[in-house]
Structures are given as C-alpha cells and as structure tokens.
C-alpha cells in the first residue's frame, strides 16, 4: 500500500504502482432518521449522476439502520455525535453478507443470467478496455495479441469493487444543539467560581439559541471492498463449462454466496452542511443530497489511496502534461503531489519522496472518456493529456503525479 | 540572451558527452514485455545515468545492443520466452569494432531498427532514483527481422543455413505431429507387411482443421522471411497422389520387404531436409484459454530431433484461438531457428547423417564374406564408405554373411570432385553402386550388380546380385 511522504511499501523493483479504476455500488442506508421527506431524499439520491471516475456496479439491496434506533430526533442526534462506528460497520457487514452482496457483485461483473445460468466476460472486457491508459493502448498495439490484452486486464478490476454504504440523516439542528447545550451546562455545573459558572451557562445557552435553527444533513459512509483473488476467481469460474467467453453453470453445480466476502475498509463522515428548509423543500433536499453525495465521493478520494489517481508525467516542455483526465474524475483545480521513486538496490524497497506540487489547469482538462481505440469528437479530445500548472523544469517526464488529499 | 543560449548549448553538449560515456559502458538490463508483432521484440530496457534525460536517450541504443549481443531471459512467469542474441559469437563486438562504432554512432544505423512505445513516455514505476543515479525503464519495439537482415547483408552474422551454400539450402516442411493428428482423429490405417499400423492422415487434417492451415501459413511466412521457403505440405500431398502408382510399384516390386508408409512416401516426394512437427493443445482454465505449443525439427534423413522449442502462452479470454496460435508461433520460432542453425553448423562441419543397409538377393551366389583378393567383400565396402564419408565417420552396427547395417554414416554435403554439386543419400550411394560394379568375383565376372533403394531420404538399401 502506498502512502505519501514517507516509506511506503516493500516491493519488487519491477512491480509498478498502477492506478486502476474502481467500481462502486452505492447503497443508501434506509434509516428514516428524522428525515423530513424521505421519499424526496430517496429520489434525489437515486437521480444523482454517477461520476465518470468510477464504474457503476448495480446491485439491488436494502440496508436498514443497523443501530435500530427509533424515529426520534434526540436518539439520532446522539447516535450521530457519539455512536461507536466500528460496531455499526460490523452490523452492516452482517447485513451485506446476509444479502449475498459479494456474490451479487461478482455476478454483476460476469453478467450472470439467472434464467439461463450463464455468464460472459463482456462487462469485464469492456471495463478493461476503458481502464486502459494511453500507454497500455500503445503497448498493446505493438503486440501480437493486439488490444485483446486490454480486455483481459479487466479481470484485475474486479478486486477494485467497493460497496459504499451511506447514511444520510436530516436532523433538526435543535436536537443537536440541545445535546451540545446539555453537555456544556453539565461542564458549567462543575465550575466552582459562580461568575465563571454563570458565564459558561450563558455561553451554552447562547450557542443553543444560535444553533437550534434549521436542519443539518449528516452523512456517514462505510466502505467495504470485495475480497477477490485468483483462488476466488478459480472457484467461481470452475463452476461453469466454458465455450469461448461464455460459461454455462455445470449440471448440479451451485454457487455458494459464502465463497465471496467483503472486507471493511473504513468509515468517513461529511456532516457540516446546514440548510434551512424553506417552502421549496424538494429543491433544497435535492441540493442538500447532491452536496452530500459529492462530499461522499470527495471523502473516498481523500481518505483512501486506491481512489487517488496516479500517473507519470508525460512531458514538461513547454507545459507539464500527464495522460489522465475526465475519465479519472479531473475537473480542474485538483492538486497533485509530484513524487520521485527511490529504489534501495540492497533491500529492493521503494520509497516515495515528494519533490513538488502541481495543479490541474482548469482550461486544459483532457477528455479521455471513450472506449479504447475509439475517436472522441469534441474539441478537448485534441489534447494529448491534461495540463498541470507548476514549475515545469523540476517536474520532468517519468516522475509520478498523485492526487493530493 | 546570448549567455542563456550559450548555457543551454553547453548543457546539451554535456548531456551528449555524458550519454556517449554511459553508452560505451553498456550498462542496461532487458525484460520482455510482450510478444511483439511479427518480426519485432517488445522489450523494456533499463538504462542508468546520473541524468534521467541521458538515461532516456541511451535506451534505444541499449535496446539494439542488447538484441544483438546479449539477448534476454524469459519473463518471470515464463509466459514470454527469452531470446538468444543475434550474434552469439564471443567477442563479436570487438571483432567488428569499427563497424559497431559507426553503427551505434549518433544517427547511426541502429536508429532504423528501434522505436519507442508511446513516444517514449515512461510507465508508472519505471523512473527510479538509485543512489545518486537514475534507472529509467522504457518500452521499445526492436525490428529484429530487419536488424538481422542488415547484419547478414553487412557480413556481421551468418544467414540461417548460409554456410551450407545457396545451392543446397536445406528445405523444411511443416506437418502436424503424430500426437496432434491422433488427438484430433486424423489418422489412417496402413498395412505394413501384413500388420496394420496407424499413420497420420495429413490430407484430412488440412481439409478439416482451419487452424492448422493458418499455423503452417504463418510459419511459412516467417521462414520465407529468413530465406527459407518451405515445402508446402498441401502441395506435396498432391504430388504424392500423382505418384501413387509408382509408389505402389516400389512397395510390391523386387525387394518387397521395403515397405514404405504414406508418410515415408511423402517425405521422399517432398525431399524436405527437415520435417518440422508442430503440436498444440488448447487449455481452458476457467474463462482463460491458453495454448501450449511444441515445435520439433526432425532431420528427415535420420528422424532425429535437431531443433525444438515449446512453451505455454499467457492465458486470455479476449484473444481468439488463431491469435493465440499466431502468438505462440511468433514466440518460439526464433528459438527454434537458433537451434536449427546449430544443426546446420554441425552439418557443415561433420556432414549429413544417413543409414546404409547392404543385403543380397537369394539369387546372388556370393555373399558379404566372399573373398575378393585379400579381403572380404564386406571389408571392401567398409573401406569405400570410410573413404567417402566426412572424416571417415560411420558405425557398422551389424554384419553377417548376408547383410550389413551401418548407422551414423556421415556423408558430405557436396561432391568432393564437383564442389558446386550438392549431394543427397541416393547420389552418394550411387557411388557405392558404381564401385561394386568394379568388383569382380568368380560368380560375378562382370562386376557386382545391385539394386539401390531408398526408404525416405536417409535410409539406403543396396541389394547385391541384380538390378
């Protein structure tokens, strides 16, 4: 695993770090958490455009509030502020396992047809081709196998499948403010000096008055990764008789959902959006949901290395150019660290040293959102890569750019 | 402005001088990346320098240098085969110092044979700082066919089979292996002296297996590129059919014990010096298909294996089987040819191996122990063979009064009296036939007549007594 700024991983010197696309299944936890208009939230959640940066992995499951809280604003607020999230993660994991989410994800990759009991490799091939970098395509073109190798690489993307479980909670600020006030008052009660105690009580009450208006949208996101390796692949594919790229379930064979498991990766929060619900509640809810989902994606990228695009510098004359773009989620303005790889020949250890920073030029983001080999038909396609702003002389070809937190 | 221009100019000169210095040291490593399109190797070349720009510049020279003098090992998973250097001679570079100095000079010939993949972009992980210097990996394609041709034309390396001379360049015919034919149901029954044996039915295989034709065609194309047009199996089978009547006569005429299978008959008609047997198995491991490929080069004269290459390609669920087969051919042909070259070198030095059998008709009143002058007839024959083989090499494995069997009879490739004339086993054996005619015995006062018969290309039978 690669981390910034210090020693990173011990690896074979020939083993190159490579950013690959991830596939996400987004699930909203159905909690009815003090939400003013849950149906509207659902609608906003479901209509939110899926980001280009990820592949969508459709699985149809419902997750319920793992804490089994009643619809009670105070309880929800307490949960949001103080609940221990690891226990929630375990409860969610149990729900995901019970609904065979790992199996559903794998079947989704393999286009499993429940009626015919068949699978095929088309989704995996397509994802592999789309994930291919410009360099991958050029290398493939000068090989006897041609671009078929790009499709084959899709199998490696299955291990980059994630379930993102998000709990969106609309809660009246009054509940949270009251809890904060209660905590502050309790602290004030322990102050012995009357004047100081009075000031603390006043302060707590003032904070309550100021904070009690409107609603906040709190989002917690739990991330799980499909546990996928060669052995799992073999166990699954061996259940089928293969004819070319199509497999038919062997007579008498069954697929045990327990073959596929998920690993808990971590939890992140986005909880500081405050909205005052006016008359046009739908618009405000849509906006609030959109902002929070944005935050979920941003948090994923900030928190987890596997979602941070990384690519070598292609050229630095006259501008810094690298071959990533909209396909990797760039919009302009993102910051990237410039990393130099250092190899210790004796131990084979590679360390990464930050040697600079660059920023994506908003006017020159490369639109590479097309299938391998196809031609784009817009002006941005004439770019050979995205332009980065920074000190070009120090950022020479081959150095790695990795999206900063 | 002038100062700035001078500074940049000086830096460039320094970089070039540094590159030259580093290039002379030839410090680099080569890893295979993939099986390149026909005639090319796709490799990653790791170059070292204190300046990353210099290391990048060196890469192309290093790649070509490596292909000529070092070759490379197989990939760590063994799926991409290694390749031997084009010039395997020790100290080859020193032997042609002036040539290679010019060849690798800036703008030298080397540039014609190498191209950078993706315009020289460096892949993630291929730009490494090692101590105070840089190790840069660049993926390049080396046009090894064109490079080989250039070196052959310039007289630096030998042409495949070149030492055997153009007049008798060995010929090759590609056939599917017996195992492959059997596995795919392309066998036919053949009666050999009353015993039924199964032999490959090449005609049925060609007519029914589309992959076979493609594979043979690809090998044909690649061998033609090396100056070795192949004997086409399909054409030879047609020739064989037209000569069927004659073959039947051979099987049933005097000396009828020489039974010749259809395969032997084909070999005789095609007269290919090397039979290249190909064999592949398609492995299905889950969704992945891979091809296990095997080449065997058999000397038609002896049926001994003289070259071979085999391996299993990388699995794929995207590449169709013909592409996997083509990839296998491209992967292993150079290895195969390299071994073939060793065989040709050996032939040039030690001659061609055949077998010789001497027998007698019942009507022949003498035998091999008949005294002729002070020696037995068998001794005279051995003496002739000794005098007419390369370094007198042959091995009498069996000798009785009625028969002699000699193996590892090393016949010259060219007639010593007419060096421009390439000779084969039949031509060589005619010399023996003529010699026998000069030997007079009481029972054969006009010399010993004998019948010369061939089995395949490399087995001669001489039957004493009559023609």
Query: Strands of the biggest beta sheet of chain A: in what spatial order?
Result: 11-12-15-14-13-16
Radius of gyration of chain B: 29 Å
Structural class call of chain B reads alpha+beta
**Tally of extended strands of chain A?**
16
How many beta-strand elements of chain B? 20
> What is the H-and-E element order of chain A?
EEHEEHHHEHHHEHHEHEEEHEEEEEE
pLDDT averaged over residues of chain A: 81
Could you list the spans of chain A in which at least 5 consecutive residues all have pLDDT below 50?
1-15, 371-380
If interface size is counted as residues with C-beta under 8 Å from the partner's C-beta, which chains form the largest one? A-B, 53 and 46 residues
> How many H/I helical runs of chain A?
11
Strand content of chain A is 25-35%
Helix content bin of chain B: 25-40%
DSSP helix count of chain B? 14
The best one-word shape of chain A is globular
Radius of gyration of chain A: 25 Å
Distance between the termini of chain A: 16 Å
Tell me about the largest β-sheet of chain A. 6 strands, antiparallel, barrel
Strand content of chain B: 25-35%
Shape of chain B: elongated
Q: What ranges of chain B have pLDDT less than 50 throughout 5 or more consecutive residues?
A: 1-10, 245-257
For the largest beta-sheet of chain B, the strand count, sense and barrel status come to: 5 strands, antiparallel
Could you characterize the architecture of this molecule?
The complex is a heterodimer of chains A (405) and B (467). Chain A has eleven helices and 16 strands. Chain A has helices at 38-47, 73-82, 85-98, 101-109, 122-131, 134-141, 148-152, 173-189, 194-211, 230-237, 281-303; strands at residues 7-10, 23-30, 55-56, 63-64, 118-120, 161-172, 215-227, 240-243, 246-249, 261-275, 310-315, 320-322, 335-344, 349-360, 386-389, 400-403. In chain A, the strands form three sheets. Chain A has a six-stranded antiparallel barrel with strand order 11-12-15-14-13-16. In chain A, strands 2, 3, 4, 6, 7 and 10 form a six-stranded mixed beta sheet that branches. In chain A, α1 (38-47) packs across α11 (281-303) and α8 runs antiparallel to α9 (194-211). Chain A is globular and about 85 Å long. Chain B has 467 residues and is of the alpha+beta class. Chain B has 14 helices and 20 strands. In chain B, a hairpin with a 3-residue loop joins β15 (395-399) and β16 (403-411). Chain B is elongated. Mean pLDDT of chain B is 85; it is low at 1-10 and 245-257. At the A-B interface, α5, α6, α7, α10 and β11 of A face β1, α2, β4, β5 and α12 of B. β13 of chain A pairs parallel with β4 of chain B.
């Amino acid at each position: 695993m690669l981390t910034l700024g210090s020693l990173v991983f011990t690896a074979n010197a020939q083993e190159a770090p490579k950013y690959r696309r991830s596939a996400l299944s987004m699930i909203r936890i159905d909690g009815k958490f003090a939400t003013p208009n849950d149906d509207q939230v659902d609608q906003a959640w479901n209509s939110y455009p899926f980001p280009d940066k990820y592949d969508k992995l459709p699985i149809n499951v419902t997750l319920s509030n793992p804490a089994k809280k009643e619809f009670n604003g105070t309880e929800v607020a307490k949960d949001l502020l103080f609940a221990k999230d690891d226990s929630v993660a375990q409860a969610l994991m149990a729900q995901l396992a019970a609904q065979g989410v790992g199996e559903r994800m794998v079947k989704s990759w393999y286009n499993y047809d429940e009626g015919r009991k068949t699978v095929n490799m088309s989704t995996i091939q397509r994802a592999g081709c789309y994930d291919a970098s410009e360099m991958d395509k050029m290398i493939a073109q000068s090989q006897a196998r041609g671009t078929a190798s790009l499709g084959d690489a899709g199998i490696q993307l299955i291990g980059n499948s994630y379930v993102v479980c998000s709990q969106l909670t609309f809660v009246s600020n009054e509940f949270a403010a009251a809890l904060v006030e209660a905590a502050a008052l309790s602290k004030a009660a322990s102050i012995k000096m009357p004047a100081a105690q009075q000031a603390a009580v006043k302060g707590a009450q003032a904070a309550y008055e100021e904070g009690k208006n409107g609603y906040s949208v709190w989002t917690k996101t739990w991330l799980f990764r499909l546990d996928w390796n060669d052995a799992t692949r073999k166990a699954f594919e061996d259940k089928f008789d293969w004819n070319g790229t199509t497999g038919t379930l062997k007579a008498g064979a069954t697929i045990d959902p327990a073959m596929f498991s998920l690993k808990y990766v971590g939890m992140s929060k986005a909880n500081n959006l405050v909205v005052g619900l006016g008359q046009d509640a739908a618009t405000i809810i849509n906006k609030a949901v959109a902002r929070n989902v944005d935050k979920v994606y941003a948090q994923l990228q900030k928190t987890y290395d596997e979602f941070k695009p990384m690519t070598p510098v292609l050229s630095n004359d006259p501008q810094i150019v690298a071959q990533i773009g909209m396909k990797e989620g760039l919009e302009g303005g993102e910051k990237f660290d410039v990393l130099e790889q250092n190899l210790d020949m004796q131990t084979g250890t590679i360390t990464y040293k930050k040697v600079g920073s660059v920023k994506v030029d908003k006017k020159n983001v490369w639109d590479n959102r097309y299938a391998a080999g196809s031609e784009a038909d817009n002006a941005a396609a004439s770019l050979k890569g995205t332009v980065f702003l920074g000190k070009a002389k120090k950022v020479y070809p081959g150095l790695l750019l990795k999206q900063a937190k | 402005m002038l100062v700035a221009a001078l500074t940049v100019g000086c830096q460039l000169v320094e970089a070039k001088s540094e590159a030259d210095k580093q290039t002379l040291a030839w410090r680099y490593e080569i890893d295979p990346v993939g099986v390149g399109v026909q005639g090319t190797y796709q490799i990653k070349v790791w170059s070292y320098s204190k300046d990353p720009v210099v290391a990048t510049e060196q890469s192309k020279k290093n790649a070509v240098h490596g292909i000529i003098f070092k070759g490379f090992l197989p990939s760590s998973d063994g799926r991409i085969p290694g390749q031997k250097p084009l010039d395997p001679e020790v100290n080859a570079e020193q032997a042609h110092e002036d040539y290679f100095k010019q060849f690798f000079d800036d703008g030298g010939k080397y540039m014609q044979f190498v191209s950078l993949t993706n315009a020289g972009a460096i892949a993630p992980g291929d730009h490494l700082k090692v101590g105070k210097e840089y190790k840069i990996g660049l993926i390049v394609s080396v046009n090894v066919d064109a490079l080989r041709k250039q070196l052959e034309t310039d007289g630096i390396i030998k042409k495949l089979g070149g030492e055997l001379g153009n007049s008798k360049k060995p010929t090759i015919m590609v056939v599917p292996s017996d195992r492959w034919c059997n596995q795919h149901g392309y066998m036919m029954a053949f009666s050999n002296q009353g015993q039924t044996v199964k032999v490959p039915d090449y005609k049925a295989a060609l007519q029914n297996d589309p992959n076979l034709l493609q594979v043979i065609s690809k090998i044909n194309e690649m061998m033609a590129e090396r100056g070795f047009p192949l004997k086409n199996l399909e054409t030879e089978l047609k020739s064989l059919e037209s000569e069927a009547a004659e073959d039947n006569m051979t099987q049933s005429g005097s000396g009828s014990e020489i039974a010749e299978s259809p395969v032997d008959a084909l070999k005789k008609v095609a007269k290919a010096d090397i039979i290249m047997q190909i064999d592949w198995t398609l492995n299905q491991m889950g969704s992945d298909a891979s091809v296990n490929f095997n080449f065997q080069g058999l000397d038609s004269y002896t049926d001994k294996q003289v070259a071979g290459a085999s391996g299993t390609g990388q699995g794929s669920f995207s590449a169709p089987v013909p592409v996997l087969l083509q990839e296998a051919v491209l992967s292993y042909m150079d290895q195969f040819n390299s071994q073939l070259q060793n065989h040709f070198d050996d032939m040039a030095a030690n001659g061609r191996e055949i077998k010789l059998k001497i027998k007698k008709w019942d009507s022949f009143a003498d035998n091999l122990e008949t005294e002729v002058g002070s020696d037995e007839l068998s001794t005279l024959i051995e003496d002739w063979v000794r005098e007419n083989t390369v370094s007198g090499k042959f091995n009498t494995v069996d000798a009785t009064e009625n028969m002699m069997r000699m193996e590892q009879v090393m016949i010259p490739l060219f007639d010593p009296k007419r060096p421009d004339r390439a000779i084969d086993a039949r031509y060589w054996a005619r010399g023996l036939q003529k010699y026998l005619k000069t030997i007079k015995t009481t029972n054969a006062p006009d010399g010993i007549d004998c019948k010369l018969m061939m089995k395949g290309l490399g087995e001669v039978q001489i039957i004493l007594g009559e023609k």
